[in-house]
Design brief:
By secondary structure, the chain is an alpha+beta fold. The protein is built from nine helices and 17 strands. The strands form six sheets. A four-stranded antiparallel sheet has the order 9-8-7-11, with no helix packed on it. Strand 16 and strand 17 form a beta hairpin.
Length: 364
């Protein structure tokens, strides 16, 4: 995907190639590339309650500013009532307040424990990271995995019922239980056998890994984790993971997760850097280079069939270029023709009104 500064036109938007801010989309400061910026931002934004703090360092107006991201563990946001009062940065120690706050933007996930929307209970503000939900899910998956692993180590037979003919003394029961447990049971081996009197027969009361379908359980864990992260399960081998389904799932991932995130990101950047944007200019992105979002050429041509008698050749070529990765140039006046019945005529000829004598009252 390509980020840049764009200006809206009647045909959509046009990238401004020589804009002051364009350098940011390759490097945001002398030490950090824009790709690294996205990496830092996503990890800190999703994994930390404190979110992300972005600082803009300005120089002369006609020169591109630098952007810096502060580690979530290195700053604290302070509120006074409903207003952000100051930012304390730990290392190197700094306190930011007043007009200087305009050079910062604090971005975090919503905290549903706040008094009202972004207003915290205390004088320090935090978000509520999605990582909290993942931690609970991870703890569950870990317990399930350890249980299955212990079953596998024990050949799936950690416990059962012993019966013996006649009466067994308590000491005899304990001896049988302890010997069996030493070899097959115990907490590390996922269970203990149950010993009762009369019969000395063993009845297995557990399932083998094959019966429990451990592999299916592992796959379901992957699938549920993917869904929790907003990733279609077909992309981790789940569901009906055919080629066509994976292809559709990649498009779904862009439309449901990536594009909404990018829309929020450019809104934040436009707000932070608004003094560098004038006359309808805005930071935006272009996804025309993303193969997963392109339609199959054959399908596009099939869908455009109905337009052939309604648009010019140039217009048709323009539609085809936008919907695929084929680059078709405008043919100029030669392309300003449409197909009408049995032949080609110029657009001007089609739109040209025939000479019609003035109607008379008697004709009506």
């Amino acid at each position: 995907m390509q980020f840049g500064v764009y200006k809206k036109t009647k045909d959509g938007k046009e990238k401004i190639e020589n804009h002051t801010l364009n350098r940011l989309f390759s490097v945001i400061n002398p030490n950090t590339s824009f790709n690294d910026f996205l990496d830092y931002f996503l990890i800190w934004y999703e994994s930390s309650n404190n979110g992300v703090l972005i600082e803009v360092i300005k120089g002369l107006k006609k020169f591109c500013p630098d952007l810096y991201l502060h580690n979530p563990s290195n700053f604290t946001i302070y509120f006074k009532g409903s207003a952000l009062e100051r930012i304390e940065i730990l290392n190197p120690a700094r306190s930011i307040s007043g007009e200087d706050l305009k050079n910062f933007i604090w971005i975090r996930n919503p905290n549903y424990f706040n008094i009202k929307d972004s207003i915290p209970f205390s004088n320090t503000g935090t978000g509520y990271s999605k990582q909290n939900a993942f931690a609970l899910w991870g703890a569950y998956v870990k317990k399930a995995w350890i249980w299955n692993w212990n079953l596998a180590k024990n050949l799936g037979r950690p416990g059962g019922i012993f019966t013996a003919e006649g009466f067994l003394e308590k000491e005899d029961k304990e001896e049988i239980r302890s010997k069996y447990t030493a070899s097959f049971g115990g907490a590390k081996n996922a269970g203990q056998p149950l010993v009762i009197g009369s019969g000395m027969k063993y009845q297995d009361i557990t399932k083998s890994p094959l019966d429990a379908d451990w592999n299916l359980g592992e796959q379901k864990a992957f699938e549920r984790t993917a869904v929790a992260a907003g990733v279609p399960m077909e992309l981790v081998g789940g569901g009906e993971s055919t080629y066509q389904n994976r292809k559709h799932a990649k498009k779904e991932l862009y439309k449901d997760e990536i594009i909404p995130f990018l829309n929020k990101l450019v809104q934040w950047l436009n707000y932070l850097l608004k003094e560098y944007l004038q006359n309808g200019e805005e930071i935006d992105y272009d996804l025309t280079g993303i193969d997963e979002l392109k339609e199959d050429i054959s399908e596009v041509i099939k869908n455009l069939e109905a337009l052939k008698n309604r648009v010019t050749i140039n217009e048709y070529r323009k539609f085809l270029s936008k919907m695929t990765d084929i680059e078709l140039e405008d043919l100029g006046e030669k392309g300003d023709v449409i197909l009408v019945s049995a032949g080609d005529v110029t657009l001007n000829e089609v739109l040209e009104s025939p000479d019609v004598s003035e109607e008379k009252e008697d004709d009506i």
